[in-house]
Amino acid sequence: MIHHYSKPMTATLIQSPDRVLLDHISWQSYQSLVKDFEQQPAIRLTYDRGLLEIRMPLDPHETYKKLLGRLVEALTEELGVEIRSLGSRTCDREDLLRGLEPDQCYYNQHEQAVWDKAQINLNTDPPPDLAIEIDITSSSINRLDIYAELCVPEVWRYDGQSLIMYRLGNQQYQPYGNSIAFPFLTSLDIKRFLDLKQRTRENALIRLFREWVKEHLTLEM
Length: 221
Known about the structure:
Blueprint lengths: L10 E6 L2 E5 L3 H10 L7 E5 L2 E5 L3 H21 L4 E2 L5 E3 L4 E3 L3 E4 L3 H4 L15 E5 L8 H8 L3 E5 L4 E7 L2 E5 L10 H9 L6 H19 L1
Helix pairs in contact: 2-6
């Protein structure tokens, strides 16, 4: 059964340079804002049963979001693995009254099920296999809890200092040392390349990562 959340008055709980947190927001209002902000991809909306967070990510957030995405895409190219890249597509379900926009998300294990679909419907299609979260300034809403209810099997979270790979089990995330999607890949491997960003230009960093992947594949043969 679908529950429509509504209250008579909107309240602003938090307002800061990079976010606004509003309460008493209906599902219909959230959906309207999703449509209104379609042409403004830098804005992130998180909705949790009446709570709505609007975030305007700063440059460090966008830098590491893009870099982590490029690492995943370079990795899959070197491995010869097909993916469906969906960036910050809105992942929401009205029956849960919850929704969010990952910083990056990908299908790889379930790529075959969605590669040719113009529009994916999370009520009938599988959720993304991997979501990437850049959390340099922490969200006011527990986004991992929303991912868990959406049944996203793997989330990588980077806070500017450490990268944690979470796996979903028993409706909760637990940190693991390696990836589900790419079992040989550890969080320390990715963190090592993220740390290079401080002294290495971006394309050069991606080239180094590709070389590392090729060396790893050669050692496995």
